[in-house]
Amino acid sequence: MLVPVSINGMSRNMLLNTAGGISSLQRAAVDAMGLHAIDASRVKMLDSAGNASTYFVQVDDFAMGAIHGPNLQFVVSTGGANASPPFVGSLAGDLMSQYDVEMDFANRKLNFFSKDHCPGHLLYWKPTAVAVVPLTYDLPTGDNSRTGFRHYTPREVHLSVPVTLDGKNFDALINTGANYSTLSANTAKFQFDVTADSPGSTPMGSFDGNPDHKVFGHVFSSLTFDGVTVTNPHVAVIPDLVGSKDPNNATRADSRVHRVDDNIGSQITIGMDVLRKLHLFIAFGERKLYVTPASAPVVAETAPAKP
Fold first, then answer.
1. For residue 266, which of 201, 181, 154 has the smallest C-alpha distance?
2. What global pTM score does this model have?
3. Average pLDDT score over residue span 94-121
């Protein structure tokens, strides 16, 4: 889902990306808009292709609908080499968490609400079923004012919720920025005995153009959020690449040999292939996610025929 925004008076689109953690702008877009990227942040952005960035940029004037924010800062992502991408960056949980957020995918609406309301009295539509699941935030990072990257909002706000995939329980990352739901290759192999050679697995190319980083699809039986079940979800199984291209991903001492980025990432993510079948209300104030089946698309009324 693309969200129209204004960046220093320039109209652009940003990708709604609940898995982004920190809102970001693509390097190509930063250069095209004449913004100045600074390599001074101790907040490091990692993507699922293994890239890492410590650049950030300040936007003097940012607007999204009726919401207006001066002097906001964004991490600069390494992706987006296309000179004319369909979106200039990602709108992530660090900014969204300042409000309660409704995501009505069937009607392509993103609504922001004040968090000042009575607990539990949120859904104004009448769903056939409701799942209310606890919402887990990643811990905010520290104040990085000494590097110039200010702590103006909680950082690294990923949205994780408990789900059940074919009888196995996981904390899944909600990812509105991905077309497909994903499962890490290690989790698929060791939890479900599913590999690229398993019956029913279908090749989906490679993750980053590298033939050794194969992606394959697999259809599972069910994915359940409390009382709401999605049947036969098609999940893309992806290699574990987070941190693989991070030059500062040094080893650290522990009960075994680890790298700094080992625990960053998610075993399972819920992408738009599943989410578009749902209607979500993210109650950041309550730390709860309300999940219902998708609302029927609103059909515009037609004028009666003239006699």
1. 181
2. 0.76
3. 89
Residue 72 lies in a domain: yes
**Cβ neighbour number for residue 265 with a 10 Å cutoff:** 15
| Per-residue b or e along 13-24, where b marks 16 or more CB atoms closer than 10 Å to that residue's CB | bbbbbbbbbbbb
Q: Are 250 and 258 in contact (CB under 8 A)?
A: no
Whether 305 is in a domain gets the answer no
Given a contact cutoff of 8 angstroms between Cβ atoms, the answer to whether 97 and 284 are in contact is yes
Structural domain including 52 reads: 2-96
Same-domain status, 266 and 129: yes
Domain count, the chain: 2
- Find, among 153, 114, 161, the residue nearest to 137 by Cα: 161
Cα–Cα nearest to 138, from 120, 116, 153? 153
110 located within any domain = no
C-alpha–C-alpha distance, residues 159 and 287, integer Å: 10
For 10-42, the pLDDT digits (tens) are: 999 999 998 877 889 998 899 999 999 888 656
Instruction: Give domain status of residue 29, yes or no.
Output: yes
Are residues 200 and 72 part of one domain? no
Looking at the structure, tell me whether residues 66 and 22 fall in a common domain. yes
